[in-house]
Amino acid sequence: MNLLDHLKQNPFIMAPMAGITDHAFRSFMKKRGSSVVVTELVSANGLDYKSERTMKLMSFDKSQHPVGIQLFGEDPETLARAAQIAQDTGCDFIDLNFGCPVPKVVKKGAGSAMLKDLPQLALVLRAVKLATSLPVTIKIRTGWDANSRNAVEVCNIAYNEGITWVAMHGRTRAQNYSGLADWEYIAEVKSQVKIPLLGNGDLVTPDQAVLRLQKTGCEGVLIGRGCLKNPNIFLQALALWRKSLLDLGQVNVRQEFSSLENDVSLDFVDVFRELSELIHSNCEPHIVNIQLKKFAAWFSSGYPGASQFRKMIFQCKNNDEVQDLALEFFAKLGTLKQDITGDEPFLMGGHG
After folding, report:
1. Which of these, 162, 208, 223, 290, is most buried using a 10 Å CB contact count?
2. pTM for this structure?
3. Residues 63 and 134 in one domain
4. What is the CATH number of the domain that holds 197?
5. Per annotation, catalytic residue among 100, 227, 283, 316
6. Interval 146-166: pLDDT, tens
7. Is residue 49 domain-shared with residue 198, that is, in the same domain?
8. Alpha helices by DSSP H, the chain
């Protein structure tokens, strides 16, 4: 099954996020319905220098297929060599990041800075396509700033260079993560380009994800921060989307999707235990504590007492304390409803 066929079966993809979509979390979210998964940012220069830390960012297991490795850099030849190294891992596709707004990436001409130099962007795409036999996808923003939104031009270049799809975050680089993602612009771009387009930005409920997918006509949508509050958002969105297809009378879909699990309820006690096991199995000891605290804090978002819980958990000294405190907090939630619509500053992260 090729990449686009996966989108036809399931158009909901976890957005790659630096420091978040590591080996453990990708395995965790793949099981919870993400169509494909993509690594966090991997430096092409780091691979060129044979950095052990950079190489580890590319690790994955067979449960994650299809899995993409996301590369960033500014030099076509270096990115081409990095794509060859990535291909040797056995991954399924290469994803190039032209969306990262972080200054240390942008000042080198990488990430979203590439949107200011489309001839260079075209050279990068050509070099990487020649270097690998794998499908190549790209992640972009709407443009560098409000006066230079050029996503249509970028998509046309990508189409001409044989890129499989473009994923677009609905903000400019200048916006960073402020304001709202412009889904009207995403729909406008989709209506003008031939290449498959995936939309991204501010999707925090399964209903939003399905509505944006349907209204824009995009082939898929990426969900980032939404899955940090609600790890079942992909399963829930998939269930809603498949039901909508059945309601439209697409009988061929009925047989294909009849095995979908109806129970996509969320029990954070079980969720945290499962993720904790994956983190312990796949992270170095000094990273385990950090990851446990981060995910416990994110999962608590929107529940009564979450703010105090986060203060307490970041004061824990060891992993057992973190685990016990988190499980105690989640066990007390019972039937309380989570407020998943609020936007809290500590959730404003990710690179692209």
Report:
1. 223
2. 0.92
3. yes
4. 3.20.20.70
5. 100
6. 999 999 999 999 999 999 999
7. yes
8. 3-9, 23-31, 44-48, 52-56, 76-87, 103-106, 118-131, 151-160, 183-192, 206-216, 226-229, 233-247, 251-256, 268-282, 285-300, 306-313, 319-331
